[in-house]
Amino acid sequence: MIGEVTGIRKIRMLYLQLLYRCNFTCLHCFHGKRLQYADVFTVDEATSLLTLMRDEYGTEAVTLLGGEPFVHRHLAQVVLHANVELGQRVEICTNGYRIERRLTEIAPYLDMLRVSLEGVGSTNDGIRRQGSYQSALNSLSLARDLGVPTGATMTITSRNIDEVLTLAGVLARLGVRQLKLHHLRPVGNAADHPELLVTASSAYGRLREELASADLPLEVIVDEDLSEHGAPQVCTPSDGPREIDRIEADPRGALTMSCKAVGKDSHAFWYEKAAGRIVHKPSESDELTLAVPDVVYSRA
User: Fold this and answer.
1) Most buried by CB count within 10 Å: which residue of 77, 124, 216, 293?
2) The sheet that has 178-183: what strands, in order across it?
3) How many angstroms from the chain centroid is the CA of residue 193?
């Protein structure tokens, strides 16, 4: 259905939000009140969507997230289906809080463990949860010891913009390969915390200069909205792209192609779980009608 409407023939990665439930209520979480919702992908629903995406769109990889994916009771079964049965690359994006036992169980089938951090020590804990910083570092250390490649994500806010380089140094010493920096979008919980927004765009320019001059032993990937002038326009064929990097499925089955549309209910496609099919549900505010651009990432 996506191909029929948009002309897209290949979608490289599926971002699969297994559930809304989480053991954190981070101040900037784009899910907001949905963290309280009970929507969840069952094992059969998740594996069916993974298979459909592989068969119809050549999807090569999956990122499992939530909510908190390690809270999902059958995470291991989903990982095994994607990695062993479908031959897909599997990444998990987690808060890294007390995941040691389950991480050890699935480590042989993981291509990347990506942990979210929002600064160093109390800065992180003030945004995420008390004790979450040390727990995240423990999980990164365990993943390294288990032979699982690791990465981290950080959403840039007014509280942590001055700690990027310090955090990068801490992560590098743990063997983390990549730090991905996100722009804060005022949806979900972040809409209730405008004090987290970086109001002076010149601060992004200074951050970019610091990253450019620093000799960091890990790769830093930057959301191009973290600049004084915002992200550049991305040129695509007049009749639309034939291939996109990702599509995100939320626990209800809503499918979103642009990161800038995630959390805004501007999806044009749904995965109907019971029927095992993707359907088109256009609206005046969906991402296709509004031509919502995707996030542009580049190396720092």
Assistant:
1) 124
2) 277-280, 269-272, 254-256, 243-249, 10-17, 61-65, 89-94, 112-116, 150-156, 178-183, 219-223, 297-299
3) 20
Class level of CATH domain 2-299: alpha beta
Region at 276 (left for phi over 0; alpha for psi -120 to 50; beta for the rest): left
Identity at 20, one-letter amino acid code: Y
Query: Where are the strands (E) in 9-145, listed by range?
Result: 10-17, 61-65, 89-94, 112-116
Residues whose CB falls within 8 Å of the CB of residue 130, separated by 6 or more in sequence, listed in order? none
Tell me the domain boundaries of the chain. 2-299
32: preceding bond cis by omega (within 30 degrees): no
- Pair of tokens at residue 2: 């996506």
3-state secondary structure of 31: coil
Residue-by-residue pLDDT tens, the chain, 300 positions: 899 999 999 999 999 999 999 999 999 999 999 999 999 999 999 999 999 999 999 999 999 999 999 999 999 999 999 999 999 999 999 999 999 999 999 999 999 999 999 999 999 999 999 999 999 999 999 999 999 999 999 999 999 999 999 999 999 999 999 999 999 999 999 999 999 999 998 999 999 999 999 989 999 999 999 988 777 665 454 456 789 999 999 999 999 999 888 988 899 999 999 999 999 999 999 999 988 888 888 888
